[in-house]
Specification:
Length: 325
């Protein structure tokens, strides 16, 4: 199996926060590079080394503080990297009081644009749940198996349907989204969840993502699936921290709110989502690693949600809960 080396540049303060986020995204085996450690080593009069190569010193001085990790060189790796980039954007918005550095993500030892296209050879049509067939926009579909075909091109945005968290959400959407429901998709990425909801019978959907590029990608995917802007609206913004944006969605009484993000964001959202939902409305959420499940359940229950469904896939968990007011 081939692996791709990824580096996230951050500050010394940001190392702990970014490490925690990467762990939430399912990554382990992180390599921390703190440039201050090497400077401290050089200045330590009691160090055991008598001589250090000038080339090594220069190399270390040029290296940025950050975290290196590896992802698979395939479709899953592409989905995972998109997820990480989105989560880093959320982190930068949430932790504005800290200098987290650039949070620039670099694909090492390969041109990022080449790798960003190579994964497409692994992305083939496949079924999710009982009703949905995912079809990449560049692939031909010879047999739909009597399923609803959702055509998707995620570009560089999270949401192909291959990630366990997306699959879990769509399985819950199949179960809980009813004809003529209204839907709000928070952290929409490629738009896959809200588009799936519309194809399954929802009357209308609003969607939001912190990444401004998600707006065009979601609209393009909606158009591919015969959905126009009369019943699908996508904007960019951070609904947790922007009070005016939050107010704009309060009182809309959605039937279903969907959020496939990370545990900490879901915990924060659990306080706000009741203001978007009608009584007995459904909150479908994923992006939760097993170790954080109890934290998320506790937050939901504290904010008057009844847990209806818990679904697992590998190390990931999705929840469906009902707001009882």
């Amino acid at each position: 199996m081939e692996w791709i080396e990824i580096f996230v540049e951050t500050s010394q303060i940001g190392l702990e926060l970014v490490s925690g986020l990467l762990y939430q995204c399912g990554l382990t085996g992180l390599m921390i590079e703190d440039t201050s450690d090497f400077e401290e080593f050089l200045q330590n009069p009691n160090r055991e080394w008598d001589y250090i190569e000038d080339e090594l010193v220069e190399q270390k001085k040029q290296q940025s503080t950050g975290i290196t990790f590896f992802i698979r060189d395939n479709l899953y790796g592409k989905e995972q990297l998109s997820d990480i980039k989105s989560a880093l954007l959320h982190l930068k918005e949430q932790e504005k009081e800290f200098d987290l550095g650039t949070l620039k993500v670099t694909v090492k030892n390969i041109k990022e644009e080449d790798w960003a296209n190579n994964w497409k050879k692994y992305f083939k049509p496949f079924a999710i749940g009982d009703k949905i067939m995912i079809k990449p926009s560049w692939e031909e579909l010879t047999e739909s198996e009597n399923k609803i075909v959702l055509e998707i091109d995620p570009a560089h945005i999270f949401g192909t349907g291959t990630h366990e968290t997306t699959q879990l959400c769509i399985e819950l959407i199949e179960k809980y989204v009813k004809n003529q429901d209204t839907v709000f998709d928070i952290g929409c990425g490629s738009g896959i969840l809200s588009i799936a909801s519309l194809l399954l019978g929802a009357k209308s959907a609003d969607a939001i993502d912190i990444d401004v590029n998600a707006v065009d990608v979601a609209y393009e995917n909606a158009e591919r699936n015969g959905i126009d802007k009369t019943n699908y609206h996508v904007i960019a913004g951070n609904i947790i921290h922007h009070k005016e944006l939050h107010k704009a969605y309060c009182g809309k009484n959605y039937d279903v709110v969907e959020a496939n993000i990370v545990a900490d964001v879901i915990i924060a959202l659990s306080k706000q989502v009741p203001e978007y939902l009608k009584k007995d409305g459904i909150f479908i959420t994923s992006g939760i690693i097993k170790e954080r499940l109890e934290d998320v359940k506790e937050a939901l229950q504290k904010n008057h949600f009844e847990i209806l469904d818990v679904k697992y896939k590998k190390d990931w968990v999705a929840l469906a809960s009902r707001y009882y007011g």
